[in-house]
Amino acid sequence: MKPPLRYWIWVLAVYGASLAIVGALGAAIAFGLPPDDGDTLARIVAARSPLLVAAAGLLLALCAGAVSWLFTNYHYAARLLAEQTEVVLKANPNHLVSVEAGPEMVELAKAINRIAEGMRGLQQDLELRSAQARSHVEEERNRLAALMSELTQGVMVCNAEGRILLYNERARALFLRVASESAPLGLGRSIFALLDRGQVTHALDKLRHSLEQGITQPLTRFVASVSGGAVLRIQVAPFLSSGSRLAGLVFMLEDVTGSLGDEHRRLSLLLALARDARAPVANIRAAAENLVQYPEMDSGGRARFVEVVAEEARALSDTLNAALREHALAFKASVALEDMRANDLVSVARRAIEGAAAIETAGEVEGDDLWVRVDSYALVRALTYLAAQLRGAHGVRAVRFRVEAAANFTAIDMLWNGAALAVETLAAWESLPMTVGGDEAPITLKDVLEQHGAELWCEEKAESARLRFLLPSGEPVPAIEERAAHGEDRPEYYDFDLFERRGVEARFEDRPLAQLNYTAFDTETTGLEPSAGDEIISIGAVRIVNGRLLKHEVFERLVDPGRPLKPESARIHGIEAAALEGQPTIEQVLPLFHRFCEDTVLVAHNAAFDMRFLELKEQASRVRFAQPVLDTLLLASIAQPGIPSRTLEAIAERLGVRVIGRHTALGDALVTGEIFLRLLPLLAGLGIVTLGQALDASRKTYQARLKY
Fold first, then answer.
1. What CATH number corresponds to the domain at position 687?
2. More confident residue, 146 or 636
3. What is the pLDDT of residue 485?
């Protein structure tokens, strides 16, 4: 170890003090001598000056040796004991401190180990008591887990910022089946990576409106398309905090892709019945009309017409039965429509129009008992589109809504002061994609009208004009039975710290390390020279969310490198060339890994090596890893500068991390993640608590200068 500056200061100080003492003694002796004796002494000193210089050098060496002995046996030993004690306190309580130094420091190490042993005993007793206290909570959690696993629907819970807090196996299997890896489901991930942001935001607006109206347990539904072409029917309920603040949302998911096929078959059935029944019905009608028109017809003719009626009736019956058997699953209502109170629809539409189209709105609702059957997301989008068109093309600055009953339908009017629209103008608007504020929808107004079986026209009334939507009336949704005031509360979702996580838009560097999500990863390669053409053959990764290593949320892929493996590399990782044949290329795997680790901080051991391999493939795979990167090699040198070994095995052993699957990408990623979590409290003890502080400290280490 390179001696610090204070070592040389101590050497010079001791040497200077020694010289001063010797000089003082010589001066004291010379001061009391007679003049002749003084002259004699001066001549003797001058004659022995080389010997005195050698003595001074020897004194310097003795001083340096003494200071070195003191530093080695006490100063360095004390610092090494302090570092090891931090490991015992914050990372690995089973670690035994040791030092090769003076007997006093060895005794101190033994005393620290005795204290640590006593702490372990107290900790074990505390853990036993805590386990007993947690038994009831664990039992409740197990009941919740069992209940969630038995649900026939997929369930997800997210916080108010859209970060997923909980999901059951049904939800995981559903997204794995319908969306595969293109839409990963995991704790801490954003719900907007799975579902359309506009639809989720719209559902949130509806729920907030219901809560403002005093409805304590509102629900809303919508249908969403996800990657892979699947269609999900989704029911959303709010999760309220103790202060009645919206803390999150509960999503209940159902795959209705097949039901849409049933809807198509239902329409096909109607067309088939209309086509195949036309001829038999016409024949029956003609025969019946002849029987009625010619009552004096002879018995033979009458019998022939009766036989025609019977034969055609049998044919018609056979046609109906065959069609019903073939389309037995087709009699289902449209999954995209839900029953909704009309004034709630208008309130949500007004909020959307004021925000997106910058138009003032007002509402006039006839009673509170009018219901419509609508796809509220599509219809609100249509109303907002029309309001934006009125503002842009006709300068309309304010609209008002009126809802009233109309026979078996419900009429929703959008009124404004001014002239009515020309028929040609409205027809043109119906055929254009619905664009609001630069956001273009893939459907037209005509599509929305056809979806609802609705009618739309424009007319002039007194001094104003109106657009009238004629929508099918809906059935009132039964209110959810309220819980008794003294009854059981809504089941707790336990201590989900993510509920309280705020500020996801803040810069990464300013956020505490404990509040970030991470992806610990590792690569195996054909060799150690990325710039010389070596390639990745395996990537393994695991996610760290809320201070927990999620061993069920991992990424592991073999990669065809397109070049031979080096024998020395194969001996390390044990991957044979035959195992890589037919595997996807790095251009196919890297986008999947990029999606897996998005919105997280990357963590690796000797990260410069792995990141160089990724950077060289970014252009070919059309992805870029722009997130911050932390290196456990550098962090360990910061947390424990007195311990020289920086290998993954040495750090893991010191921190009490069990090494399994060494030199496999996923195995090393898991070990790296465990090491990182145990380094966090050690870094916090040094005042390194934010990502920016960790990155700054890492840049100052000697190992950070290594390049690949």
1. 3.30.420.10
2. 636
3. 38
User: Are 289 and 363 contained in the same domain?
Assistant: no
d(CA 502, CA 510): 13
Contacting residues for 507 by C-beta, under 8 A, at least 6 apart: none
User: CB–CB of 106/97 below 8 Å?
Assistant: no
Strand partners, 410: 405, 471
**How many domains would you assign to the chain?**
5
Burial 8-38 (b: 16+ CB within 10 A, else e): eebbeebbeebeeeeeeeeeeeeeeeeeeee
DSSP per residue, 70-89: HIIIIIHHHHHHHHHHHHHH
406 and 541 in a single domain? The answer is: no
CA pair distance 540, 521, nearest whole angstrom: 6
Residue 429 is inside which H or E element, if any?
A: helix 423-431
In this structure, what token pair is assigned to residue 104?
Answer: 């006093």
**404 — phi, psi (to 5°)?**
-150, 155
Catalytic residue among 202, 394, 573, 663: 663
Taking alpha carbons only, the member of 231, 677, 359, 30 closest to residue 669 is: 677
Residue 401's pLDDT band (cuts 50, 70, 90): very high
Mean pLDDT over 109-127 rounds to: 82
Q: How far apart are CA 175 and CA 166, in angstroms?
A: 14
Cβ neighbours, 10 Å, residue 397? 13
Secondary structure of residue 361 in the 3-state scheme: strand
Q: How many C-beta atoms lie closer than 10 Å to residue 216's C-beta?
A: 13
pLDDT at 693: 92
Question: 170 pLDDT exceeds 60?
Answer: yes
Q: Is 327 a catalytic residue?
A: no
String of DSSP letters for 161-203? TSBEEEE-HHHHHHHHHHTGGGS---TT-BGGGTS-HHHHHHH
Distance, in Å, from the CA atom of 300 to the CA atom of 366, rounded to the nearest integer, reads 65
Cβ-count burial of 133 within 10 angstroms (0-12 exposed, 13-18 middle, 19+ buried)? exposed
Per the structure, the complete domain to which residue 388 belongs is given by: 338-472
Which residue, among 348, 364, 341, 359, has the nearest Cα to 471 in the 3D structure?
A: 341
- pLDDT score at 328: 41
Q: Are residues 218 and 272 in the same domain?
A: no
Q: Which residues, including other chains, have CB under 8 Å from residue 346's CB and lie 6 or more apart?
A: 363, 365, 401, 403, 412
255 within 8 A of 232, measured Cβ to Cβ: yes
Q: Which of 56-70, 92-106, 187-201, 295-309 has the highest mean pLDDT?
A: 187-201
Give residue-wise pLDDT tens across range 292-304.
Answer: 887 777 878 778 8
Q: Which of 44, 60, 90 lies at the terminal end of a domain, its last residue?
A: 90
pLDDT at 488 (0 to 100): 38
Alpha-carbon span 357 to 344, nearest angstrom: 19
Segment of 30-39, 309-318, 349-358 carrying the highest mean pLDDT: 349-358
